[in-house]
Design brief:
By secondary structure, this protein is of the alpha+beta class. It has 3 domains: 215 residues, Alpha-Beta Complex (Spore Coat Polysaccharide Biosynthesis Protein SpsA, Chain A); 108 residues, no CATH class; 94 residues. The protein contains 10 helices and 20 strands. The radius of gyration is 23 Å and the shape is globular. The chain starts with 5 loop residues before the first helix and ends in a 6-residue tail after the last helix. About 1% of the residues have low confidence.
Length: 454
């Protein structure tokens, strides 16, 4: 709960917390309820909701339930950089925090962030420990392996197309922790390939005790799958189409990490540090990181005044990594504050694996590299993107057509859209690059020491 009293307030920094809403509905309301329970003096806290022209009635609901929350509305959907509307006028504000509208903070979230920030004046940002919102338990899946051919070198077992817990669809939060190959999409929807042996992490609401899980499988060839939810194995035949298998669950709940600061790989791809790792204590000590995550972060106003705000051209994804890179080039540090904890409904807004997600992630990675990376690194990755797209075209279009089969256009079409979007912004990004290079204080070689090898 927010702390009352002038004497208490005088010992605390004044903080503005910014929540971005776009048709957030109950998610935004839940986020604001958790912020209301912070252990921070009410007189030293501003909560600002920036609204991206929502049409779902959420703003009216916020006004009704949270009269203390200031609402700033955009005239059009500006994407994540709409946060800038509450990051400019920071006179009298000691720190400004960003938290996703689909994240739910713990009461000590802010105090732990501020404590870390005040430990060193050169810190420009401090990142929370962001956990995935559900609890998880494991279900083991085994299936005979096969070679898919056509240039695909993976050993595959079976496709997972859905997960239900006690009849409720939890597919958007489930993932394969061991033996998985990442979420993909086709004309039937999203799926994930599992190798001959895999572990499906089944999500459930904290505080509940689910009894059964149903995994929905698919396979291009008839096969047999064995599923074990902890209370005995069950084998079933799987054919092309949707084949459900239900088993009883033995709950051994644990938390899974979403982000504890961010990293950049040596190919320029950004990623969540700790993504999908068990929260087993490995990330409980504060550490310096290359980048911060905009889902839950505390920012110093002098850092923003020096480096600038979020790049509005990015719209979604990589804008926080871009701003982090710019700050690193100017000599700012970033650190994690693992005692600051929030839980996150991952990709609740755009949906991981969706066309919106894929378009902006692929386009913006190239834009960020052209803007910030050494010239050789940026050029190499742009060229690699072109070659990879041609490889997909050969596999998914040319080969099927030559064999009188239906071509698969999804991946190639998506990558072409992303590349055309990149080319449209390339001239302006090169102009920005020249300006940033003229003010850079930290050599590229020193920044490159942070890059993580694939």
């Amino acid at each position: 709960m927010l702390v009352e009293g002038d004497d208490v307030a005088n010992t605390h920094a004044r903080v503005r917390v910014v929540v971005l809403n776009f048709n957030g509905g109950v998610l935004t309301l839940k986020c604001l309820r958790h912020l209301r329970n912070l252990d921070w003096p009410v007189g030293q806290l501003e909560i600002v909701c920036v609204d991206n022209v929502s049409t779902d009635g959420s703003i009216e609901a916020i006004r009704g339930e949270f009269p203390e929350v200031e609402i700033r509305q955009t005239s059009s959907n500006l994407g994540f950089p709409a946060n800038n509307l509450a990051m400019r006028d920071l006179q009298g504000i000691d720190y400004v925090a960003l938290v996703n509208n689909d994240a739910y903070v713990e009461p000590t979230w802010l105090s732990a962030l501020v404590e870390m920030m005040e430990s060193a004046p050169e810190l420009g940002a401090v990142s929370s420990k962001l956990l995935l919102a559900p609890k998880f338990t494991d279900v083991v899946v085994d299936a005979p392996g096969f070679d898919p051919g056509q240039g695909d070198t993976r050993e595959l077992g079976v496709m997972l197309r859905g997960v239900l817990v006690d009849g409720s669809d939890v597919w958007s939060h489930a993932h394969v922790g061991e033996g998985g190959w990442g979420r993909e999409a086709d004309r039937l929807g999203t799926f994930e390939w599992i190798g001959p042996h895999g572990v499906v992490r089944v999500p459930f609401e904290p505080g509940t005790t689910p009894q059964k899980v149903t995994l929905i499988f698919d396979s291009p060839v008839p096969t047999t799958v064995t599923v074990d939810g902890g209370r005995g194995q069950k084998s079933a035949a799987v054919e092309s189409g949707f084949s459900p298998v239900t088993v009883e669950l033995s709950l051994k709940p644990y938390d899974v990490v979403n982000n504890v600061g961010s990293i950049v790989f040596d190919d320029g791809a950004g990623a969540d540090r700790g993504w999908l790792a068990r929260d087993d204590g490995s990330f409980d000590e504060p550490e310096d990181v290359f980048a911060w995550c905009g889902g839950s972060v505390l920012l110093r106003p002098s850092y923003l005044a020096d480096v600038g705000l979020l790049d509005t051209r990015f719209f979604l994804y990589y804008e926080d990594t871009d701003l982090s890179w710019r700050g690193r080039a100017r000599g700012w540090r970033y650190c994690t504050a693992p005692k600051s904890v929030a839980r996150h409904e991952h990709a609740a807004s755009s949906g991981e694996g969706s066309e919106v997600f894929a378009y902006h992630v692929e386009r913006n990675r190239l834009l960020m590299l052209v803007k910030n990376a050494p010239a050789g690194m940026a050029a190499k990755q742009v060229w690699h993107f072109v070659l990879t797209t041609l490889s997909y075209a050969r596999r998914d279009i040319i080969r099927p057509v030559m064999r009188l089969k239906r071509p698969r256009l999804t991946i190639v079409r998506r990558r072409l859209r992303s590349f055309l979007g990149f080319l449209a912004l390339l001239p302006a990004m090169l102009v920005t690059r020249r300006r940033l290079r003229s003010t850079q204080l930290v050599p590229d070689a020193e920044l490159a020491e942070w890059f993580v090898k694939r």
